[in-house]
Amino acid sequence: MSSKSQLSRRQVLKLTAAALFGLFAVPKLVRPFLKQTGPIHHILPTVSHSQFVIKTSFYRPQKALQIRVSGANQVQAIVGQQTDSKGRFWMFSAAHLAPDTEYTLQIENGSGSGPVGDAWPLKTFPALDAHPDSMNLLCYTCAGGPSGISLPGGKEFFKPHHIRQSIFDTALAMKPDAAIAIGDHIYWDLRGSDSVTLRAGMIGQIITWYLKQMFGVFDRTAEIIGTPNEDVLTAIGDDQIADLYGTRFKSVPMFFVADDHDYFENDDADLGTFPPDSFSRRAHAAMARLYYPAFIAEQSTVLTDDEGTNIEGYNRSFGTLRFGDLVEVPMLDCAGYLSVEGDQSVLFPRSVEDWLKSKIASEQTQHLAIVPSHPLAWTAGKWREWYPDVVAPSKTFTGLVGNNLMENVQGVLSAKAQKAVWQKGWWLQHQRLIEAIDRNQLRPTIILSGDIHALGAKSIHGSGDIDLSKRPIQSLLVGSVSTSTLAWPSAARSIPAASPEWLQTSDDVETREDNGFTMIKFSRTAVAATLVNCGGGPQGLGSAPSSVSKDLPMELNQDAAVAKTTIILS
Fold first, then answer.
1. Taking the domain 41-49+125-568, which CATH number applies?
2. Distance in angstroms (rounded) separating the CA atoms of residues 368 and 548
3. 400 touches 422 (CB < 8 A)
4. Strand 400-401 vs strand 418-419: parallel, antiparallel, or unpaired?
5. What is the 3-state secondary structure (H, E, C) of 539-552?
């Protein structure tokens, strides 16, 4: 072939990019019009025993809105607060509500002249001193990620939306009283730059180009709301949050716990992406401000600075779910406020640690479940972990190991090697929490975590020199919603998640890289967790029903297409 007829690398990139653009851009451009069934794009509420906070978005800008809250022989008309610059995003906050009461909510034009969308029910939690018999809590992790992008051969980072929505619908059919989304509500890693980048060779470059063209590029020096940055932010958030959730959770109180990707970065040690810089903090705050509720005032703790508190005066990083005197669930962002200070390092501030330890010592509720965004009892060799384990060449290797993402490193998990940039202070904070849990012998504490893309349950019998054999601490990985081929730990980190070397653990449920979620039922006599495995992982479902395929079906059959494992936690 002559040199004139040969295609240059640049031309190949352009042709492949054009093909990808044609494949993905057209559906993305027409999708909002095809899916639009009303004026409301998404609704995500949170509640306490006396308050509602609701985040909404609309397909078209609105000039003025209010919400009518009817129930308990009272009617309130609450003026909406516009949270963006164009009128598409609104927040409604209703206070002084009766506990354990179902209300009817109706969004209306600002003058009250007519309804906007359909009315829906939402219920407050029981009063703090009430004695509810039971509560069902839905937990899942890693629901974010762009929809509809795959590499040649079918490899993909994230499941398409219809799969994630089938998982949600399966979970909602189990009638949760509340839901906790544990971290990674979006994936748009900036890697310290101005737009998303991927490590996947030439194909990664093409997809990066495509994403830039479709969603835009941030100006890190400018404000976010009210500048072109807002258009980039809402393009990402509409795709990964509003389109995904829609209005299906409008009657289920939602609690969103932040983790690394919610700051628009992966926790890459080699790039120094954490602690997050000013732009990452502002981007996280802006996404939360527009799309999902923070912890309302009576549920949140106070930070050592004001960066964790959003414009509504509520905390978006640390808070608690309280359901009468039955259960309390403190939730912790382990990414946004970590420090890198040797033995003094923490994954969340000491002021928050003190607040958490007071919750652990309290006996105001019968059960306590702690939700740190980064899990206890598992390691995937990542930099930002409680544990020093890293993928090393051998168990005896003692040198420095970076183990960066997507580098296809072969080896074994070991705590003898030196994990680059890992801080011993994180382990010391871990031990302080374990000691606090062990001290309260009257009330067992369970741990519910996300981040590591898997389902599993472990009992911790020992942690360092702390003996827990008389009453092990039970910890769960709650299951990932969006994870696909290239994002499982065995693919991204070259090894499946496992028990850290400094812990003594046993498996209550084998750890599996599959999509799914966990439903926890708190009752007066016990805590039971049902781990729902929806398949979709690299190893298939194993002992699950033979009718379940390795890949998730278009729509899950809520009875036959999942494998459910129920364990008694306490």
1. 3.60.21.70
2. 34
3. no
4. parallel
5. CCCCCCCCCCCCCC
